[in-house]
Amino acid sequence: MGPGNRPLDLAWLEDFLALAACGNFSRAAELRSIAQPALSRHIKSLEKWVGVALVDRSAHPVSLTPAGKRFRPAAHALLDDLLAARRAACALDALAAQSLRFAATHVLSLHYFPAWLAGIEARLALGPIDVVSDNMAACEELMLQRKVQFLLCHSHPAVPNRLDDTRFVSTRIGDDVLMPVAASRPAREARWMIGAQISAEIPVLAYSEASGLGRIMRSLLPAAFQQHHSVFTAHHAELLKTMVLEGRGVAWLPRSLIERDLRDGRLQLAGEPQWHVALDVRLFRRRADQNAAAEAFWQALEAP
Fold first, then answer.
1. pLDDT tens digits for range 166-203
2. Alpha carbon of residue 274 to chain centroid
3. What is the DSSP string of 231-296?
4. Helix or strand holding residue 129 (H, E)
5. Which of the residues in the chain have pLDDT under 70?
């Protein structure tokens, strides 16, 4: 192994700088709290690593060679940078220990999460918060890979998800309802209306299979999503809402997303309550202990 790829021990740099500062092997060894022979070996090892002599041992006090004088500020800078990097890493780790990491399905991240979080913050001082917004399948994967601590999503007791096992626990933090809606006609009537059954003439705007709402709808109302009904499919309720407003069909949208549109008459209910699907809004976490901030947050949720 040549000098260019010989392992470097940072202690050699510290020994070299101590020797350069005091000009005496014995004194440098005392400063470094090691035996003088050990310090001498370290200096020789460093010189082998650099490839040239760094110390003029014939001088009294010991002095640096021209190469040693050139090397000294670089050694200082390297150690200073490494110490600064270590402090920054420790600070970041301490910050991470106080952080909360959430995954939230798209519609809840936009229309539920901010107000809900504000309510928690009124009772508990929170540190940094990181939120990833994605479809249900992607959010589940983040939880399974331990990349987030919590998952906020819609849920239905009759429709399991990938987190419904012994490794995870959830708490109900709210409710929502999926409602079939359509664009308004001038007389404030729905452009389409579902009767006792969904006719083939009613175009259905559906959720994709990666969507948690899509799973729920396909499980509870499979007849609504037969091939001759679905004319458009997407992950996001926001996109389906836009398509509904443009008169492209009927979609089951969360009440939390469309309350204002229903009040303003931009959207109309396209089916009787029998076509509504009641949902829980749930927060999932691992059963295993998490950092102090996450545990305090969970306890605040469960407090009366």
1. 899 999 999 999 999 999 988 678 888 888 777 778 89
2. 38
3. EEEES-HHHHHHHHHTT--BEEEEHHHHHHHHHHTSEEE-S-GGG-EEEEEEEEEESS---HHHHH
4. strand 129-134
5. 1-5, 90-98, 187, 224-228, 304
Q: What CATH number is given to the structural domain containing 135? A: 3.40.190.290
DSSP summary character for residue 185: P
Beta partners for residue 177, in sequence order: 278
Tell me if 217 is assigned to some domain.
yes
In a domain, 302, yes or no: no
Are residue 126 and residue 216 in the same domain, yes or no?
yes
Residues 78 and 109 occupy one common structural domain = no
Q: In a 3-state reduction of DSSP, which class is residue 122?
A: coil
- The CATH number covering residue 32 comes to 1.10.10.10
154, 124 contact by CB (below 8 A): no
Q: Are residues 123 and 247 in the same domain?
A: yes
Q: Say how many C-beta atoms besides its own lie within 10 A of residue 143's C-beta.
A: 22
Q: Which residues contact 116 (CB under 8 A, 6 or more apart)?
A: 173, 174
The total number of structural domains in the chain stands at 2
- Whether this prediction's pTM lies above 0.70 is answered by no
Cβ-contact 8, 74 below 8 angstroms: no
